C-alpha cells in the first residue's frame, strides 16, 4: 500500500549534487526523479545534464564517459555529443551522423553551492529560478559542513513541517509564540517567533538566534540564523523514486562566529532534524486531515504547493 498518495515528482528545480563534487572536465552519474542522468562540467565551467543513456546502443555516459571541451564522449563506441542541444557531433568510424542521434538534454544550473536540474512532467521549460542566497557569495561566510539523509518520504511532507506549529513544541521542545507564513508565487517566507524568555529553553542553541526560512519551489529552501549564530542552512529535497527522498544540507557561518558556537549550533540543528526523520519515514499522507482550529495554515500551504503538480495530477486540498 502506498503511504503517500501525492504525485511522486513535482515540477521544479531539484538538487542532484554539491557543486564541489564536480570538477572541470569531469562527468558523474546521478539517479533522481525516477531516471538516470549524467552531469558534466565543461571547460567553460558550466554544468550540463542529460539522460544517461547513449541513443546508439544504450551505454551509460556517466560510467566512463569522457568530457572533451564542453562535449561528452560515449565510452562504448566513442560517439560524441555537444553540451548545448545534445546533438551528436562525431562518430569516429562514420562520416555520416544519423539525424536523430542526440541526447535528451535536461536544464541544469548551479545555485547556492548545489547543482540543480529542472523536472517538468509535460516537458515545459523553466519559468522561474531559485533565489540566490547573498551570504554564500560573501567571502565572510564559509562552509562549515554538509549533511545528507535518504528517507522514505516526499518533499511536500517535509516542507509541510514548517507550518506545523504544534510539533515544534511536542516533538522538538521549542516554545513558539507565532509562525508567519507568506507565499509569493513559487516562493515563500516562513518566520518562527521563538519564545526566548521561556526558562526551560533559554540555554539551548535554538533560541539564541532568530530563525527565518525562505523557499524556492517544491524542493529547495534555506534557513537564515541571526544572533549569536550568524549563518545559513541550505536544503535540497529531491525525490529519488516514489516515497524515496534524498535530503542534502550545506551549513555556512560568518567568520566572526566563535568556532565552538558554530559547531554546537549545527550539531543541535542536525540532531533536531533527526527527530523528524522517523516520523516522516513512517507516517501516511492524509489527503483530508482532521485539523484543530489553529491549524489553518495546512490548507494554505497545500494549496500553494499544488502549483508544482501538472493539471492531470492536481487534487483538491482542505
Query: Rounded to an integer, what's the Rg over CA atoms?
Result: 22 Å
Describe the main β-sheet briefly: 7 strands, antiparallel
* Widest β-sheet, arrangement of strands: 12-18-17-16-15-14-13
Q: Which percent bin holds the helix content? A: 10-25%
CATH topology of the largest domain: Naphthalene 1,2-dioxygenase Alpha Subunit, Chain A, domain 1
SS class: alpha+beta
CATH class of the largest domain reads: Alpha Beta
Q: Indicate the mean pLDDT.
A: 92
End-to-end CA span: 23 Å
Q: DSSP strand (E) fraction?
A: 35-45%
CATH architecture descriptor text of the largest domain = Alpha-Beta Complex
Any idea how many domains? Answer: 2
What is the 3D shape?
globular
Give an overview of the whole structure.
The protein has 318 residues and is α+β, with helices and mostly antiparallel strands. The protein has two domains: 12-119, Rieske [2Fe-2S] iron-sulphur domain (Rieske Iron-sulfur Protein), CATH 2.102.10; 134-308, Naphthalene 1,2-dioxygenase Alpha Subunit, Chain A, domain 1 (Alpha-Beta Complex), CATH 3.90.380.10. It has five helices and 18 strands. It has helices at 134-137, 155-160, 165-170, 259-282, 297-305; strands at 12-18, 27-32, 35-41, 47-51, 66-68, 71-73, 80-81, 88-90, 105-106, 108-111, 114-119, 141-151, 176-184, 187-194, 209-216, 220-227, 231-241, 244-254. The protein has a seven-stranded antiparallel beta sheet. Strands 2-3-4-9 form a four-stranded antiparallel beta sheet, with no helix packed on it. Strands 5-6-7-8 form a four-stranded antiparallel beta sheet, with no helix packed on it. It is globular. Residues 201-207 have low confidence and may be disordered.
Amino acid at each position: 500500500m502506498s503511504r503517500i498518495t501525492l504525485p511522486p515528482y513535482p515540477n521544479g528545480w531539484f538538487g542532484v549534487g554539491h557543486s564541489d563534487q564536480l570538477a572541470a572536465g569531469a562527468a558523474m552519474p546521478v539517479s533522481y526523479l525516477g531516471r538516470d542522468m549524467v552531469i558534466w562540467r565543461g571547460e567553460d565551467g558550466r554544468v550540463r545534464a542529460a539522460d544517461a543513456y547513449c541513443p546508439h546502443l544504450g551505454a551509460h555516459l556517466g560510467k566512463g564517459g569522457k568530457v572533451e571541451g564542453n562535449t561528452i564522449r560515449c565510452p562504448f563506441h566513442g560517439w560524441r555529443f555537444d553540451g548545448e542541444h545534445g546533438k551528436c557531433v562525431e562518430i569516429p568510424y562514420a562520416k555520416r551522423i544519423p539525424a536523430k542521434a542526440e541526447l535528451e538534454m535536461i536544464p541544469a544550473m548551479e545555485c547556492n553551492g548545489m547543482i540543480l536540474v529542472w523536472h517538468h512532467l509535460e516537458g515545459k521549460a523553466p519559468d522561474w529560478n531559485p533565489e540566490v542566497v547573498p551570504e554564500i557569495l560573501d567571502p565572510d561566510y564559509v562552509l562549515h559542513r554538509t549533511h545528507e539523509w535518504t528517507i522514505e518520504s516526499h518533499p511536500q511532507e517535509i516542507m509541510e513541517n514548517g507550518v506545523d506549529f504544534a510539533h515544534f513544541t511536542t516533538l522538538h521542545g521549542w516554545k513558539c509564540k507565532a509562525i508567519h507564513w507568506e507565499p509569493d508565487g513559487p516562493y515563500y517566507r516562513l518566520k518562527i517567533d521563538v519564545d526566548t524568555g521561556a526558562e526551560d529553553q533559554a540555554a539551548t542553541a535554538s533560541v539564541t538566534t532568530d530563525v527565518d526560512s525562505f523557499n524556492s519551489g517544491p524542493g529547495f529552501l534555506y534557513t537564515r540564523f541571526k544572533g549569536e549564530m550568524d549563518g545559513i542552512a541550505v536544503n535540497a529535497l529531491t525525490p529519488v523514486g516514489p516515497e524515496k527522498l534524498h535530503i542534502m544540507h550545506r551549513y555556512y557561518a560568518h567568520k566572526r562566529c566563535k568556532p565552538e558556537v558554530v559547531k554546537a549550533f549545527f550539531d543541535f540543528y542536525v540532531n533536531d532534524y533527526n527527530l523528524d526523520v522517523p516520523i516522516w519515514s513512517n507516517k501516511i499522507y492524509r489527503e483530508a486531515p482532521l485539523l484543530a482550529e489553529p491549524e489553518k495554515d495546512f490548507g494554505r500551504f497545500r494549496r500553494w504547493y499544488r502549483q508544482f503538480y501538472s493539471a492531470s495530477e492536481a487534487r483538491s486540498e482542505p
